[in-house]
Amino acid sequence: MPNVTINGKSIDVPKGTPIIRAAAMLGFNIPHFCYHPALSSPANCRMCLVEVEKARKLEPSCYLKCTDGMVVHTESAKVIAARRSVMEFILVNHPVDCPICDQAGECKLQDYYMAYDHKPSRLNTQKNAKVKVYPIGPHVVYDGERCILCTRCIRFCDEVTATSELTVAERGDRSYIRAFPGKELDNPYSMNVTDICPVGALTTRDFRFKCRVWLMSSTDSVCTGCSRGCNVHMEHFQGQVQRYRPRFNRDVNEYWMCDVGRLSYKELHTDRNLQVHVKGQSEISWPRAARQIAEQLKQLRASGKAPALVVSAQASSESLWAARAFAESVLGTDQIYWTGKADGDADELLIRSDKNPNRAGVEIVFGADLLANDARRLLSDLNDGRVSGLWVMGSAFPFGDSDMARLVQLAAALPFVALQSAHRGALADVASVILPAATHAEQEGTFVNGDGHVQSFYRAFEPAGVALPDWQIFQRISRAAGLAIKVDTLTAIQADLYAAAGE
After folding, report:
1. Nearest 5°: CA angle at 208, between 205 and 214?
2. Structure pTM?
3. What is the per-residue pLDDT across 115-150, written as a single tens digit (0 to 9) for each?
4. Would you state the pLDDT for residue 503?
5. On the CB side of 485, how many CA atoms lie within 13 Å of its CA?
6. Residue 271 and which of 68, 119, 230, 240 are 20 to 30 A apart at CA?
7. Which class does domain 97-106+122-210 fall in?
8. CATH number of the domain at 269-500, out of 3.40.1190.20, 3.90.226.10, 3.30.70.940, 3.40.50.740?
């Protein structure tokens, strides 16, 4: 392994490691625009130039590989002077519109200007105007005046999605990014170019002028769009998720996520259950509702009509574990089904056909045999009169309009239907009990993705209305029934769950 010395510190690095990465391993941050660790390195921005002893000129640290005995200086007088010159060159035609730019607050050009240039322009002529607010694709808007031609977006489309929609048109200071004639930036991962754009040239239509980045808080979470479970930054303001951004995880999604998953945050705030409803009583308190529901469940058990439990592959593993204990101790039933969203499209990059984040969690908690008791089996058993009542987690069912209408019709004929869900869904109109559950943005928990990776997500903000995490709902009902189940804390549930899974 080559040994390289950077700013007086030595490190052994794998052969082929670029200087910029070796410097990062030592804690030295070399400024850059065109470099991205998941893309090729064209060395075209020249911002990452460093001084290598015995070299005749400054070298691009994103391109030059470490060799044994190499000595590098990343903050010498020559390097600082070069960075200032590069910044001045980049800013020659750049508009001074930071106050209205969506990238303000997370723009590398802003950061490096303050660190290296920090002086007014010497240009006395009018700046070269370029295209503004150009819809380069259905989800992405391009502002040519802000573009610094780092070509990250082009390389992403060439090397990651292999769709090659983008190129550089024209020459010199009139160059700009454009789609090839007859094409637009419309691949399933198109909005990733806005994440890797170091300036405000590429923005998403969804987030454009929506919320200033310094107003938002960011919480580590997991995308629920499919069983891949892409790691995300859930960015929110005043109890509302404003956007998802991909969070690096080498084993799951690396630096990327699909457009459908990125926009799935909108479902969190749609058609919410916010209040408890029991037997037509709206906005009833949790304690009172728990007592009434517990009494009704006792009567149903005594008459031999215990309701079946329907768990959701959209729920956390902790909620599923509490649901199993609830079915055994409180419902007194072994009639359990599972449901979730219908399968959909898939590809070889990230998107999985299974559109549920925790189908693997259902299998771990309830066993592989339960997977045969899916929503189709539930509909069949309802139709044959083998179900006397329902306790349903979640509102997602893999049905079209006709099958969903049939499910609602059959459920309406039952004496007891409890809907424990964050969203109303079709069953809300026939449910005798509605219990508002928290979304994954409003609680902590884990999902198990399709490859078996256990992934944690965290509460971003307080639950809306009187919603509670599923495990707390089960806890309240069981206590009111005098049938305590071991779900006192999330930590206790996780300890039992991990022990059962052999971890």
Report:
1. 145
2. 0.93
3. 987 888 887 888 888 999 999 999 999 999 999 999
4. 56
5. 27
6. 230
7. alpha beta
8. 3.40.50.740
